[in-house]
Amino acid sequence: MSDAGASPWPAQVTVDLDAIAHNVGVLRGHAGSAGVMAVVKADAYGHGLVPSARAALAGGAAALGVAQPAEALALRQAGVAAPLLCWLLTPSVDTDALLAVDVQVAASAPWALDLLAAAARRAGRTAQVQLKVDTGLSRGGAFALPVGPGDPRTDFQALVRHAAALSAEGVVRVVGVFSHFAYADAPEHPTVRAQQEAFADAVRLAERAGLDLEVRHLSNSAATLTTPAAAWDMVRPGLAVYGLSPVPELASAADLGLRPAMSVSARVAVVKRIPAGQGVSYGHTYAPEQATTVVDVPIGYADGVPRHASGTGPVQVAGRRFRVSGRVCMDQFVVDVGDVPVAAGDEVHLLGGDVDGAPTAQEWADAAGTISYEIVSRFGPRLPRRHVGEAGR
C-alpha cells in the first residue's frame, strides 16, 4: 500500500521495483531463447527511469531501450552500463556524447549514419548502430516496401548500402536491425504476418550486404506475449514490464501473470455536506439527487489525472468504489461518497497496485477513452515517487 503521509505533498506515486523484476521474468519465459530489451523510455512509463532500469536488469533483462538521447545519457550518468539502444535521432543531437558512453543509436536514414560516422572519426572509434526498418507502421525507420508502381527500390536498400560502405571504412558497426508492429495487440490481423515477412526480407537484405548482425528484433509487449514466432534474437517489451496488459481485450494483467508496479494515492483535503441538486465542480455537470457528502481530492490534470475521465474516473475511498463527480480540475477533483464516513486526511486510491479492490490503469483508460500506457506515463513530476522493493537496489 502506498503511504502518501510520508511526503509533504498530498499525493504520491509508489512503484514496486520487485514487481518490475517479476514482470521481466514473465516476459523472459515468453521470449524463449530471445533476450529481453526492457523499454524504459518516458521516465520508464512514469515509473522512474533509473530505478526501473535497474529493477528490469535485476529481473534478467539483457538490454535497455529508450526513445530520447537525454534518457540514454541519464542512464549512463547514473552508472547503468547495460547494452542500451536509443532510437530517436534528429540532426541536432550530440552524437559525440552518445558515442562516448557506448550508446547504440538507431539510424533510419543515410544522414543519420553520416552524423554517427562523423562523430566516430572525431573520436577515433567505431559507432555502434542499429538500422531501423519501417515494415508497415509508416512512422520511424527506412521504408522497406516499394513506394511506387514499377519501382522496386526502397529506402531501406539505400540505408543498407550506405551502412555497408561506412562499415567497410570501420567508422560504423551495424549490430542490429529492428522494426515495430502496427497491430500486435490484434495478433490475427493480417498486418502482423505481413510485417514479419517484410522484416525477414529486410534482415536478409542486410545480411547479403555483408552486415554481421548480432540482434534482430521486432516484438513489442503484445507480440512478446501473443506471437512467439516473431521473437527473433530479442524482444522489446515496454508496457508489460510495468505489469499492464498490452492486450486487454484478450487477457488481463492477472491472466498474463503480470503485477502492476504503480500505485497512486492522495489524501482527502475537504469533506462537506451539500444539499440535493447542488452542482459540483466547474460547469455543474454533476448534481446529487439527494443531500450527500462530497470530498475534495488534491490531485488534478496538472498531475496527470485525465480530464477526459471527468464523471467516470474510478477511485477507492474507505474501502469502497466511487467515481469522480463532475469535472477534473487542474489541482483537484471531487467525489460524492454518499453517507460513507470520510475525514480529511483519509487515503484515496486512484491506482491500487496491491490494494484489494482499488482501480487499475486499464479501468482509468476505459473511463477516459484512452489506453493504459497514457494513464501511467502521464502522472507528472509534481507527484513524488516512492520506490519500494529490493530489485536493482
Give an overview in words.
With 393 residues, the protein is of the alpha/beta class. It has two domains: 17-242, Alanine racemase (TIM Barrel, Alpha-Beta Barrel), CATH 3.20.20.10; 262-388, Lyase, Ornithine Decarboxylase, Chain A, domain 1 (Beta Barrel). Helix content is 29%, strand content 21%. It has eleven helices and 18 strands. It has helices spanning 17-31, 41-46, 49-58, 69-77, 95-100, 110-123, 155-169, 190-208, 221-226, 361-368, 372-377, and strands at residues 11-16, 35-39, 63-66, 84-86, 104-107, 127-134, 142-143, 172-178, 215-217, 234-235, 262-267, 270-274, 292-297, 314-317, 320-323, 333-338, 347-351, 385-388. Strands 2, 3, 4, 5, 6, 7, 8, 9 and 10 form a nine-stranded parallel β-sheet that branches. Strand 14 (314-317) and strand 15 form a beta hairpin. Helix 1 (17-31) packs across helix 3 and helix 6 (110-123) packs parallel to helix 7 (155-169). The relative contact order is 0.16. Mean pLDDT is 94; it is low at 1-5.
Q: For the record, what is the CATH homologous superfamily label of the largest domain?
A: Alanine racemase
Overall pLDDT level: 94
Helix count?
11
Taking pLDDT < 50 over at least 5 consecutive residues as the criterion, the unreliable ranges are: 1-5
Query: What structural class is derived from the secondary structure elements?
Result: alpha/beta
User: Could you say what the CATH topology of the largest domain is called?
Assistant: TIM Barrel
- CATH class of the largest domain equals Alpha Beta
State which percent range the strand residues make up: 15-25%
Helix content: 25-40%
Shape: elongated
Work out the count of structural domains.
2
Largest sheet: 9 strands, parallel
Summarize the helix and strand pattern as letters.
EHEHHEHEHEHEEHEHEHEEEEEEEEHHE
Task: Give the CA-CA distance, first to last residue.
Answer: 20 Å
Q: Care to count the β-strands?
A: 18
Radius of gyration: 24 Å
Q: Which architecture of the largest domain per CATH?
A: Alpha-Beta Barrel
